[in-house]
Design a protein that fits this description.
With 391 residues, this protein is of the alpha/beta class. Helix content is 39%, strand content 16%. The protein has helices spanning 48-64, 86-96, 109-122, 135-138, 154-167, 189-201, 224-232, 245-257, 276-280, 290-299, 314-327, 341-362, 370-377; strands at residues 7-10, 15-18, 30-37, 72-79, 102-104, 126-128, 147-149, 173-178, 215-218, 238-242, 266-270, 303-306, 381-383, 388-390. A seven-stranded mixed beta sheet has the order 1-2-4-3-5-6-7, sandwiched between helices. Strands 9-8-10-11-12 form a five-stranded parallel beta sheet, with helices on both faces. The longest helix is centred in the last third of the chain and has 22 residues, at 341-362. It is elongated and about 70 Å long.
Length: 391
């Protein structure tokens, strides 16, 4: 059999990794995993170059712990080109050749949705750290029957914020969002976040907090001065923000200038994926004046940021070092960048699937019974090598 240099065979670990377009026919003794993610831009948090080491390390863990002792594992990394049209086409092409037992990804909601709609027809499980929009939960049984989300869904974040507001007996909250805010994660991130928050806060348990005009979209022709004076003013005491870091900073500087940081207002900022470096001094800009930086610093005392906890355990540090080591031989290297949560999620997705498949096979069910495998992944926890994963 003729293979190119991208084909790697690890006989000691008894599994096969495929990085090219090699055909992988389905066999009863091999698990075929398809990773769907964009190749470019390589700086994207869930680009193939970044998540590939996490998947490989996850497979190492599965083999080392003998989670699937009778099976080989093959992996194919497929470029979705960050496209909502190309992702389902790639998935269909693979299924025409009967090449997939599992899809890992896509992460981008608009790419994930069509693939996850077709996956039940193929009886193929799909695991994604994406699927942030609340539709993936509300329509799970009807449209996304084999989808397992392992990321921080927006409805969970909205519920967390609602509980904070209720616990403090705050009232009259308003959401200010920027449709394309935080596009470093993916475009329309804050638009989808806002949609989930609006849906969640207009339910009965939070209706006393969010009135009819709960949300304000930015940017528009209205200045931040007018926005704070006329749209918030004395009507609201809690302001929930989802916007770019620079927009949040400008809003907070203006809030300081208008004395909105006097203790009568609370600002909650949704910033799930900022880096550790950006989180330490979010108010500071090297190219801004000392006066404005000091205003921002003071204003941020009235700002509570909701973000993901960044693991600090020795296991995660070892994992991060191994990820960077493996990525160093690729065209993209991490350098000083931290290993983000998407990489860890792809790692844990491999383990989660292996656990569910092991149980399925132990109950004399087939490796192609995607519905059975999926149901064994839902609503469970496990202690991974990195951190506790919850689905």
């Amino acid at each position: 059999m003729k293979m190119n240099s991208a084909f790697l065979f690890y006989s000691a670990m008894r599994y096969i990794l495929f990085f090219s377009d090699v055909i992988i026919p389905l066999t009863c003794d091999t698990v075929n995993i398809i990773v769907l993610a964009p190749q470019n831009p390589s700086q994207r948090m869930f680009s193939l170059n970044k998540i590939r080491p996490g998947v490989e390390i996850g497979i190492d863990y599965v083999r080392r712990c003998h989670l699937l002792p009778e099976l080989n594992i093959s992996v194919k990394f497929v470029d979705t080109n960050f496209s909502s049209r190309l992702a389902p086409i790639r998935a269909m092409q693979l299924m025409e050749r009967k090449q997939a037992h599992l899809f890992l990804g896509p992460v981008y909601d608009y790419s994930l949705a069509p693939v996850a709609r077709y996956a039940p027809h193929w009886a193929v499980p799909i695991i994604s750290p994406g699927g942030f929009a609340h539709d993936f939960k509300t329509n799970r049984g009807k449209e996304y029957a084999t989808l397992t989300r392992i990321g921080p869904a927006f409805e969970s974040t909205a519920d967390f914020i609602g509980k904070i507001i209720q616990a403090q007996n705050w009232s009259r909250a308003i959401l200010i969002y920027q449709g394309y805010g935080q596009k470093f994660v993916f475009p329309r991130f804050c638009f989808l976040a806002a949609s989930a928050y609006i849906y969640h806060f207009q339910r009965d348990r939070y209706k006393h907090i969010a009135k009819q005009d709960f949300h304000i979209y930015i940017p528009n022709k209205e200045s931040y001065d007018s926005l704070l004076r006329n749209r918030i003013g004395k009507k609201y005491s809690v302001v929930v923000l989802c916007a770019s870091a620079d927009s949040v900073r400008e809003i907070m500087i203006k809030a300081h200038e208008l004395n909105f940081d006097n203790g009568e207002y609370v600002f909650l900022n949704i910033d799930l994926f900022s880096s550790k470096e950006d989180s330490e001094k979010p108010w500071y800009r090297e190219n801004d004046t000392t006066e404005r930086n000091q205003k921002a610093k003071k204003a941020y005392e009235a700002l509570m940021t909701v973000t993901l906890r960044k693991p600090t355990s020795p296991e995660y540090r070892n994992f991060s070092e191994e990820v960077k080591k493996r990525a160093g031989n690729d065209s993209f290297a991490y350098g000083e960048d931290e290993v983000n949560s998407f990489v860890g999620a792809f790692h844990d997705a491999v383990i989660l699937y292996a656990l569910a498949l092991n149980e399925t096979l132990a109950n004399n069910r087939s490796i192609t019974n995607g519905t059975e495998i999926t149901h064994r992944m839902w609503n469970r926890t496990f202690e991974g090598e990195l951190f506790q994963a919850i689905t």
